[in-house]
Amino acid sequence: FSTYKNSIEASIIVTSAATVDVHNNRFEDLAEHTGVTGENSTGVDIDGANTFVRAHINDNFFINPTPSNALYAPCGISFSTTLAKSGDAVVTGNTFVNFGRGYVPNVEACIEVYRDCSRLVIANNTIHNAHSYGIRVNDASNALIANNTVHVKESVTTGFAAISYSAFNHTAPLDDPLTDITITGNTIDNALGSGLYCAGAPGGLLVG
Fold first, then answer.
1. Could you tell me which of 49, 50, 156, 51 has the C-alpha nearest to residue 110?
2. Tens digits of per-residue pLDDT, 104-142?
3. At 72, phi and psi to the nearest 5?
4. Could you tell me the pTM of the whole model?
5. What is the 3-state secondary structure (H, E, C) of the chain?
6. Across the beta sheet with 19-23, what order do the strands follow?
7. CA distances from residue 191 to 72, 132, 151, 169, 173 in whole angstroms, order as listed
């Protein structure tokens, strides 16, 4: 059980790998994002242009950053790469407290999937006091977002959704079009904006 404290940028950065496994770690009191465009303040950042065959991030604790302003809270997990059809990303059983960056233009959710991804599972995560989006997914096929609990910080702006899915950034086509997205069984509390937001959604979107 590893503990990462007071990290200035990302505690774990992965830019080239076939298999990524991050389990049973504690990310505590990460540094705030100070408002500099392009700055990174993230617990786990999966970054780069490589294809990740397997990326599993499970059973970690992201807790108690102390930003001077709620807009500058760090991101918990960020996939800012393209995960091709041969890859999969699984994010399960993680706990987040006081994460999610609301600073424009560097907004990032507690769990952020930025680009094309296939075989995505985000399930059984607990998010408390999200400072922006709880979960935000841009472009995914064969995706399951299920049984997550998202509590939004009371003072957060109404512009953020607890759970968001969008197909607007789909610029690098997968082998198949964006299909088979299931969002089900999630619990959302205190969302001042949208509880669930879907935009540009492809065929095969199931919300239940």
1. 156
2. 666 788 898 876 677 789 999 999 988 888 999 887 777
3. -100, 15
4. 0.84
5. CEEEECCCCCCEEECCCCEEEEECEEEECCCCCCCCCCCCCEEEEECCCCCCCEEEEECCEEECCCCCCHHHCCEEEEECCCECCCCCEEEECCEEECCCECCCCCCECCEEECCCEEEEEEECCEEEEECCCCEEEECEEEEEEECCEEEECCCCCCCCCCEEEECCCCCCCCCCCCCCEEEECCEEECCCCCCEEEECCCCCEEEC
6. 19-23, 54-58, 89-92, 117-123, 140-146, 181-184, 205-207
7. 19, 10, 7, 24, 32
What's at 124, amino acid-wise? N
